[in-house]
TrEMBL record:
Name of the protein this chain belongs to: Diaminopimelate decarboxylase
Positions bound to pyridoxal 5'-phosphate: G218, Y356
Pfam families, per database record: Orn_Arg_deC_N (PF02784), Orn_DAP_Arg_deC (PF00278)
Cofactor(s) required, per the database record: pyridoxal 5'-phosphate
Residues bound to substrate: R298, Y302, E329, Y356
Protein's pathway: Amino-acid biosynthesis; L-lysine biosynthesis via DAP pathway; L-lysine from DL-2,6-diaminopimelate: step 1/1
EC number(s) reported in the record: 4.1.1.20
Annotated source species: Flavobacterium cellulosilyticum
One MF term in the entry's GO annotations: pyridoxal phosphate binding
């Protein structure tokens, strides 16, 4: 996918605009499955919270992927996209017993991450197979907000509560068919991941009916040229060998599950925005674009780095710019970033915009959410239309004409 293609898409569909490269998603999926080709039973559950557009779900279904959902609405989207109930895992946090029961009744595999709900569900539905999310107390991830396996995390049942967990299972006679962990995102140190895996293996020995082990994901992708990333191939070699040895010890060929989100879709995504104004101040040159953190919140929320290119002038002389949005508060995408010379109406491209970008977009400042396009077989396909004023008004109920304000 070339810069000229992106410029043409911005002209065709308008800006701001999200564009996803289907070929990159497909190649990332193949890369992950190839890395674990030595495992007999491998299942990939795409973490759809990263990007839940139905067309993306359909594309991944064609690759052979299953789904990891964190809400009943995501489950419903997965079913709408053509996934069978047994191709969807439900891994929520802090949801009600009623929501878990409703999803379970759909035939979806549920994953429970707290003792209270586990005991209540087991007492009412002892014959329903359940997966348990373990907190391994391993700090992994590139930011405190995306590190979810440490001791202060709200996610999972502490590995130190294993005796209590086993007692609940024995008392309710429920069937535990899987053990799950997720330590965090942007994991670089493979040894930390392997250490957490050993904790999962130890916990698995307490359950005799297991069918699978779910190791989560969190693999880091490169955000800039020569950036470091998780060595999936090395992890594949080391974890496959250890997993196969554990299966032999356990006496059963278990399924190895991953639930990648960012790894599959991040690099496929491009966010395009037009420059409204180039503003020189006493110390800074601002490039103000026709978007803001309402469309791409990660730089403000996580301090994430997205490579920004001027695709209207890709070979121009580089200058330093602070790229900012149009939201009426601090709204900064990049400070003093070297970018090819920018003029008003140029189109800027934010890379790595496939994961947790559109899915976290909002209507703040009453702005419309942008359109989404899938680049497939050399052609742009509109997979979500830009919102309109009618969309902003949808579900709003004005006061009756006869109402008065006292």
């Amino acid at each position: 996918m070339q810069a000229k293609d992106l410029v043409q898409l911005a002209e065709q569909f308008g800006s701001p605009l999200y564009v996803y490269d289907a070929a990159k998603i497909q190649s990332q999926y193949k890369r992950l499955t190839n890395a674990f080709s030595k495992v007999d039973k491998l299942r990939i559950n795409y973490a759809m919270k990263a990007l839940s557009n139905v067309a993306i779900l359909q594309l991944l279904r064609e690759c052979g992927s299953c789904l990891d959902a964190v809400s009943i609405q995501e489950v419903q989207l997965g079913l709408h996209a053509g996934y069978a109930p047994d191709q969807i895992f439900f891994t929520p946090n802090g949801v009600s017993l009623e929501e878990i029961e409703e999803v379970s009744a759909m035939g979806v595999q549920i994953n429970i991450d707290n003792l209270s709900i586990l005991e209540q569900f087991g007492a009412k539905h002892p014959n329903v197979p359940v997966c348990i999310r373990i907190n391994p107390h391993v700090m992994a991830g590139g930011n405190a907000n995306i590190s979810v396996g440490h001791i202060d995390s709200k996610f999972g049942i502490s590995v130190h509560q294993l005796p209590h967990l086993v007692r609940i299972v024995e008392n309710t006679k429920m069937h535990i068919v899987g053990i799950h962990m997720h330590t965090g995102s942007d994991i670089l140190d493979i040894e930390v991941f392997l250490y957490a895996a050993e904790i999962l293996f130890d916990a698995a020995r307490s359950f005799k009916e297991l069918e699978f082990l779910d190791f989560g994901s969190g693999f880091k992708v490169p955000y800039k040229k020569d950036d470091i990333e998780t060595d999936i191939e090395e992890l594949g070699r080391k974890l496959s060998k250890r997993f196969n040895a554990f299966c032999k010890e356990y006496g059963k060929d278990l399924t190895l599950i991953f639930e990648p989100g960012k790894f599959l879709v991040s690099e496929a995504g491009h966010f395009l925005a037009k420059v409204n104004v180039v503003k020189q101040t006493t110390s800074t040159v601002f490039a103000g674009i026709d978007s803001g953190f309402n469309h791409l919140i990660r730089p403000m929320f996580y301090g994430s780095q997205h490579c920004i290119e001027n695709i209207s002038n890709p070979k121009g002389k580089e200058r330093f710019y602070s790229v900012v949005g149009y939201i009426c508060e601090t709204d900064t995408f990049a400070n003093n970033r070297r970018i090819s010379e920018i003029k008003e109406s140029d189109v800027l491209c934010f890379k790595n915009a496939g994961a947790y970008c559109f899915s976290m977009a909002s209507n703040y400042n009453s702005r419309y959410k942008p359109a989404e396009v899938l680049w497939l077989n050399g052609e742009g396909h509109l997979i979500r239309a830009q919102e309109s004023f009618e969309d902003l008004l949808k579900n709003q109920i004005p006061l009756p004409v006869t109402a008065t304000v006292s």
